[in-house]
Amino acid sequence: MSTLRGRHGPVGLPEWNRCAVMGVVNVTPDSFSDGGRWFDSELAVKRGLDLIAGGADLVDVGGESTRPGAARVDEGEELRRVVPVVRELVAEGAVVSVDTMRASVAEAAVEAGAALVNDVSGGLADPAMVPVVATARVPFVVMHWRGFSADMNSRAVYGDVVGEVLAELQQRLDAVVAAGVDPERLVVDPGLGFAKSAEHDLALVAGLARLRRELALPLLVAASRKRFLGRVLAGPGGEPPPARERDAATAAVSALSAREGAWAVRVHEVRASADAVRVVQAVHEAGEVGKAGQVAEAARVAGAAGAAGAEGGM
Ligand code: PMM
Question: Boundaries of each Pterin-binding domain copy (predicted)?
């Protein structure tokens, strides 16, 4: 369906010259890693601005927790949580994404200035979502999703997780495009932690290059503080560190993602990930300079050999 374009990111957002960093603003009392901390409009706006000051390129504002087992929030409450925060952050000059599964929230957030809709259900949770996004002509994140958080862990069953996530995402992307969303505005996300075990998440991180190559769309990776990192970091007793102690591990995944050409990483603490993606970019540029130098040297040697040959013939 899709073709690789010259652009690194989706049409409709600034073009960053490296993997972008999306900072998370959860306006929720119960998100798994930072629930309750920014559950107040003013605090949430301040948090968003702090994330930008710390190196975030854009901020993702959400009013519904999607942690495993979470119940859904009421629509009116989600609107009340999200829209004022989006409006205020946009007024302060931030590039804002809205993290929602509800078309009404997406629509109100876009009206308030949100530049991107991030739907963890890829439009499956609310049939009105895809038409809203198609009409608004904003970039749209399609994440791999198998069902609501209340019972998603029971759906974490795969033979070949990378192959199945690829096929299910492709099917979803085709449906979204058939329903009128501009393919140039799509972003894909493997949905780490959503109906996935720690082993599945690790396999997906190992498979990022394949996902990017085969889906040929900008890729968003959201590993921040997730369970699989807790599992990797667990001590000998098997006890994982608390979510807030997983930011260095998150930055490691940000570096890996940037290295594999991800368009963006979604993180709670931006500083370490912002540094990580900048280092990856600098190393990449040094490699390009090195390659250009080798080509110039090869041309110089070939030129000298040619000149010597010409001399020998005289
Ligand atoms: N994960 C969470 C929330 N929103 N959006 C995208 N695109 N991808 C994700 O993996 C994702 C997301 C859950 O994490 P949080 O509760 O810490 O925000």
Answer: 19-278
